[in-house]
Design goal:
The protein has a single domain, classed as 434 Repressor (Amino-terminal Domain) (Orthogonal Bundle). 44% of the residues lie in helices and 4% in strands. It is mainly alpha-helical and 91 residues long. α2 crosses α3.
Length: 91
């Protein structure tokens, strides 16, 4: 199934000439693997790393600190509202 939304970090890279994860990670002082985990939603950024990413990308710091939701995959997230609601949970 195709993703409806790109993760904000991936969208940032795509909007900057298809910047690689390694290039973006180097700009904020983390490894490519950590950037990848942040994009996949399998890791949280520390406040210090989130601040550096926010400064680079323009993504709100509060939003970055909430992107590593291990209860849902990044591909299933609305980049603004957070995890998409499960239709069977709706009234």
């Amino acid at each position: 199934m195709a993703r409806l939304f790109k993760h904000p970090l991936e969208a940032f890279r795509d909007g900057n000439g298809k910047m690689s994860q390694a290039e973006a990670a180097a700009l904020v002082g983390i490894t490519q693997e950590m950037w990848s985990r942040l994009e996949r939603g399998t890791a949280y950024a520390s406040p210090a790393v989130a601040k550096r990413i926010s400064d680079l990308t323009g993504i709100a710091l509060e939003r970055l600190l909430n992107l590593g939701d291990n209860d849902s995959k990044a591909a299933d997230r609305d980049p603004i509202a957070g995890p998409l609601e499960n239709p069977k949970d709706l009234p």
